[in-house]
Amino acid sequence: MSEGTQSGAGPAEPGSPKVDGTNAWVSPSRVGVTLPQPPGIAQSPAPGTQATSSAGSRPPMAEGPPPVAPGTHPGAGPPDKPKRSSGARTAIIAGGVMMGLAILGILVVIADWGMRSYEMNGLLTAIESSEEAMIDARVGLQVLGSGVDPQALSEPSSAELAAELQAHAESSRDDVEAAGRTVAELSVASWHSSVAEARTQYLSHNRAWVAYLDAAAEDPARFFVDYPDIDSTWQSAEVSVRKAVPDPTVFDMDERIESIFEGEPPGQGETLQATGLAFPAPAV
Predict the structure, then answer these.
(1) Candidate CATH numbers 1.20.120, 3.40.50, 3.90.550, 3.40.1000; the one for domain 110-275
(2) How many CA atoms lie less than 13 Å away from 279 in the CB half-sphere?
(3) What pTM, to 2 d.p., does this model score?
(4) Cα torsion at 113, 118, 119, 124 (round to 10°)?
């Protein structure tokens, strides 16, 4: 190796400057020398400088749309969620409507049962009051009429007893009639036909008693006359009342019905047996 050369350095290019008396290659830009470039090759800007066009301005930026991510479209937002088909949407709506109707139907049935129970409870309460008035009428007749000869009530010697029997008949009639008005005034829904029928049948029984007591108030001897309408209407009322009881029952309805209708019908014929008297019904 000759003096003034570096190991590994190649021969210097023609026309290249020498620095420090060596053949080491120095970039022309570092020494302020600009070498001509072959046609078609852009000159690289020197470090720390900004490339300019031949006119002294910045080179134009490449025009065109910005890069787009794979699988997307320019200008589009986030990908849409998959839409349900119209058939699936219709099925969901139909299912919701059917479920709503089923729930509504259950609520209607429960509400109707509650209304029937309320109406039946009111009817039983009115029947119990009416029956108490009839029991008072029978008890009073048993006390006043025990051992009485009805045919002798028209004699002057029996005038005081006849007056007591008439007064008792009038008082009992008013009480039974007032209880019947309570039965008649009960409010029952038009579609609750069984409750309405029970009310009608028992009201017939109540009015049969009113007719019987009204007759006795005019003639106390008629206290001791059997009126078949009382027993027949009682039996019809029992059948109708038992049919009108809602299921399931509340307000102790089963127990109350058994208490009302247990044993023989509390008709006027039972009173005659208690007094030991029996007379045919008057001709109508």
Answers:
(1) 1.20.120
(2) 17
(3) 0.60
(4) 120
Cα Rg of the chain, angstroms: 58
pLDDT value of position 178: 96
HSE of 52, CA atoms in CB hemisphere, 13 A:
7
pLDDT tens digit string along 122-138? Answer: 999 999 999 999 999 99
207 φ/ψ angles, rounded to the nearest 5 degrees: -70, -30
3-state helix, strand, coil in the chain (%, to 5): 55, 0, 45
**What is the residue whose two structure tokens read 């080179």?**
59
Q: Encoding tokens for residue 170?
A: 């009038």
| Integer Cα distance of 150 and 167 in angstroms | 16
Burial of 223 (0-12, 13-18, 19+ CB in 10 A): buried
Per-residue confidence at 193, pLDDT binned at 50, 70, 90?
A: very high
Q: Domain extents for the chain?
A: 110-275
Question: CB within 8 A of 1, min separation 6: which ones?
Answer: 7
- The pLDDT tens digits of the residues spanning 208-247 come to 999 999 999 999 888 888 888 999 999 999 999 999 999 8
